[in-house]
Design brief:
278 residues, alpha+beta, 6 helices, 31% helix
Length: 278
């Protein structure tokens, strides 16, 4: 069901959707971070939220996904929306006829005000939900430092039994356990990964259930000085919904070859740019 897939996607988005350029200095004493683990997480949370407000960059990149089929697309972001052009499926480039059909779809999309408005509305809602979940991050878990080197600090997290989630997304988030890696120089989230520690039920299990053991991992990298982007997303969740109909969220997505898009790029220009990464 759409809502269950959305729940599983939201806790992945929670810590890593936000990008930006603002840097914050970490406290470091003889190579050991003197802050409490929760304070490290809270500082990273604030750095991500502040950076999101400051970053207005747009990007062109290669997006490879495996979710039952293998697809490769070229994505070009603009202030007016994002153009996504499919270029291969299951390891095979599109044929001439398939490429022509895909170009027609892209041209139709950039001229469809309803689709563009929906894309924008969905993006705003995703951003709102991501911010709400990100703000829960310090308090939803018990945190401890697992390891540390000159560049990163790794924190382990487990459900905080005293945490009272305000909604279903918070319930899913609050049943995760895993690790969070923070870049010490900029206080940016590098990696977050975890698994569901127990089943999460919706409507006493009648409407849906996400199964214990489901996993996720998201990787983020600095693609330009001070500018961070998601580079990998891996979600493997199983469950049932609506009277025992099987559901599955199996997604592996890798984003590479980031190139910054010039300010003022139009949708028409983006459509042309999506034909090649060069």
């Amino acid at each position: 069901m759409k809502n269950l897939r959305y729940c599983s996607r939201l806790f992945v988005v929670a810590g890593f959707l936000l990008t930006g350029w603002m840097q914050f200095g970490a406290v470091d004493l003889h190579g050991q971070d003197a802050r409490e683990p929760k304070e490290i997480v809270r500082t990273a949370m604030n750095a991500e939220l502040t950076a999101d407000l400051s970053d207005h960059t747009r990007w062109k990149y290669r997006d490879a996904q495996k979710d039952g089929t293998e697809t490769v697309s070229i994505v070009v972001e603009t202030d007016h929306g994002s153009v996504k052009r499919l270029v291969s499926r299951n390891g095979r480039p599109l044929s001439a006829d398939e490429a022509k059909t895909e170009d027609g779809r892209v041209q139709s999309f950039i001229r469809d005000s309803a689709q563009l408005a929906k894309q924008k509305k969905d993006g705003v809602q995703d951003g709102k939900n991501a911010e709400e979940l990100l703000r829960m991050l310090p308090d939803a878990f018990d945190w401890k430092v697992q390891s540390e080197d000159a560049k990163d600090i790794t924190l382990a997290f487990a459900p905080n039994t005293k945490f009272s989630p305000p909604d279903m997304q918070g319930r899913v988030l609050g049943q995760m356990a895993g690790v969070l890696v923070v870049d010490k120089g900029q206080n940016r989230i590098v990696t977050i990964s975890g698994k569901l520690t127990e089943d999460v039920t919706i409507g006493w299990g009648l409407l849906g259930r996400l199964r214990q053991g489901g996993t996720f991992r998201v990787e983020r990298r600095e693609v330009a000085p001070g500018l961070w982007q998601i580079t990998e997303t891996h979600v493997h969740i199983e469950g049932k919904a609506l009277f025992f109909k099987n559901i599955g969220q199996q997604q592996d997505e890798v984003q590479t070859e980031f190139v910054q898009v010039p300010v003022g790029t139009t949708l028409e220009q983006a459509a042309e740019m999506s034909k090649s990464l060069k």
